[in-house]
Specification:
This protein is mainly α. The protein has one domain: Globins (Globin-like, Orthogonal Bundle), CATH 1.10.490. The chain is globular and about 40 Å long. Bound molecules: protoporphyrin IX containing FE (HEM). The site of protoporphyrin IX containing FE has 22 residues, from helix 3, helix 5, helix 6 and helix 7. Its cofactor is heme.
């Protein structure tokens, strides 16, 4: 149900609807509340515009075309927040820390990731509570992904 923490902090819940994360009220769906597919497409579009120009991050991506990586992040985030479960159907359990092991996620890479994500979240112009909810998760997830000094 949860990520293997590899000894670094608490495990991330698999989806935001996991009991204990505050999204368990019947009928409440964060994915829909923030605007559904279009909102998440915009988030990853703006984020990957930043990655494409980033001298530290761009070389980390194995494929020439960033499109497939963008699609994987989109599907993951949509599933996490209560949208379609396509990510799981295509990729299985996220195991995000494990999937990032081939890449050197240093504190500097984490900060670059978060900088581009901050720009992307700002571009959504969400109400403060929704923005804070989304950002808190992204910030925590990025800190949990660091795997090298
Ligand atoms: C902290 C800095 C991070 C760096 C430097 C980083 C970098 C990368 C790289 C290089 C890849 C491989 C690209 C590809 O899929 O082809 C990747 C994949 C991915 N990342 Fe990150 N990432 C970071 C944090 C995160 C966070 C916080 C999340 C989720 C909230 C995330 C979600 C994903 C997903 C869903 C994939 C695709 C996994 C799959 O293969 O299915 N990443 N990341």
């Amino acid at each position: 149900m949860t990520e293997t923490p590899h000894g670094q902090g608490p495990a991330l819940p698999l989806t935001a609807s996991t009991p204990g994360t505050g999204f368990t009220q019947p009928g409440y769906n964060f994915y829909e509340v923030v605007g559904g597919h279009d909102t998440f497409v915009k988030l990853v579009d703006v984020f990957y515009d930043g990655v494409a120009d980033d001298p530290l991050m761009r070389p980390m991506y194995p494929e020439e075309d960033l499109g497939p990586a963008k699609e994987r992040l989109l599907l993951f985030l949509e599933q996490y927040w209560g949208g379609p479960r396509t990510y799981g159907e295509q990729r299985g359990h996220p195991r995000l820390r494990m999937r990032h092991m081939p890449f050197q996620v240093s504190p500097a890479a984490r900060d670059a990731w978060l900088r581009h994500m901050r720009t992307a979240v700002d571009a959504l112009e969400l109400p403060p509570l929704q923005e804070q909810t989304l950002w808190d998760y992204l910030d925590r997830a990025a800190h949990s992904m660091v795997n090298s000094a």
